[in-house]
Amino acid sequence: MSGSREQILGRVRAALADVPAEEHPPDVEVPRDYARSHGRGGAGTLTDRLQDYGAVAHRVAADTLPDAIAAALRRRGARRVVVPPDLPEPWTAAWSDMVEDGDVDTAAAGAPVLRDIGGGVGLDALDAVDGVVTGCAVAIAETGTIVLDGNEAQGRRVLTLVPDYHLCVVRADQIVEDVPDAVARLDPRRPLTWISGPSATSDIELNRVEGVHGPRTLEVLIAE
């Protein structure tokens, strides 16, 4: 690709070799004054879009987030989940308390929360857990898209691709209205994963199949 590009540019330079510099086409400034949002963003719009995609979405008070996570995992019937190494411990505290109180049967699964410290959780272990709990980098209200960049509370990309269930926490201050707003916040040098609903694909007859290349179930807690 880069070789072809250089060949084309080389031919352009050769064609302009006998043209005086003052006659070269001037640099064109591309205007960037298009609308970056349409005033339809926010937690309500994000919730609606996520549900349109087939994801499960809840708006919860920020101070009840640990209880909301525990309730979601209990509804799911999860016994063991994997989390990024820097996921805030309070997020899973209520879940751990529930296990200690005997409200969740984890006897066959070991510790309920498996931290991916140093990337030590292998593919077999990821395939055996009941789900993954993460945060996110940004969430786009208008498109119902969640973006992960591997930063705080997100972990390695593989953590959110192998388990069949992804419970994602979105803080209210991480919600933007539209794609340009999200791009402005993100670092293009980081490994970005854009998620719009559960993993799904369709065959030639448009039969939808979920869980082919990622979680079959996406549940989102929007903490306000």
Automatic annotation (TrEMBL):
Superkingdom per UniProt: Bacteria
Residues in the signal sequence: none
Spans annotated as Disordered: 18-46
Alphabetized SUPFAM superfamilies for the sequence: NagB/RpiA/CoA transferase-like (SSF100950)
Pfam family name, one: LUD_dom
Listed InterPro entries: FTHF_cligase-like_sf, LUD_dom, NagB/RpiA_transferase-like
Basic and acidic residues bias: start-end ranges: 21-36
Annotated ranges, domain LUD: 47-222
Protein name: LUD domain-containing protein
